[in-house]
């Protein structure tokens, strides 16, 4: 991957900048945190009660908040990469604001369901 060039369709679809690559990584971390929330909350085979106890909602809440922080970082750096590349218009900005409010709503709903 260091020596070879990406395909032409990849060059058109993917933004190659520091912010964009960080955005992709933060999206993957966010996905892993949300999947980990589910496993930590309900899977007693992977997280046995002998080691982690029966009350694991605190750990689930921390994973959920970290997942939302990573998701917010993904959105922020994706917007920065698109704005620096000249690909950001007013509609994209409006969708980003809506996504931010939706993320906050998910945070409130998730934390209220966990507690």
From TrEMBL:
One of its GO terms (biological process) is photosynthetic electron transport chain. Pfam families: PSII. The chain crosses the membrane at residues 21-42, 54-73, 94-114. It is found in: Cellular thylakoid membrane. It is a multi-pass membrane protein. Keywords: Chlorophyll, Chromophore, Membrane, Photosynthesis, Thylakoid, Transmembrane, Transmembrane helix. It comes from the Bacteria. This is Chlorophyll a/b binding light-harvesting protein. It comes from Symploca sp. SIO1C4.
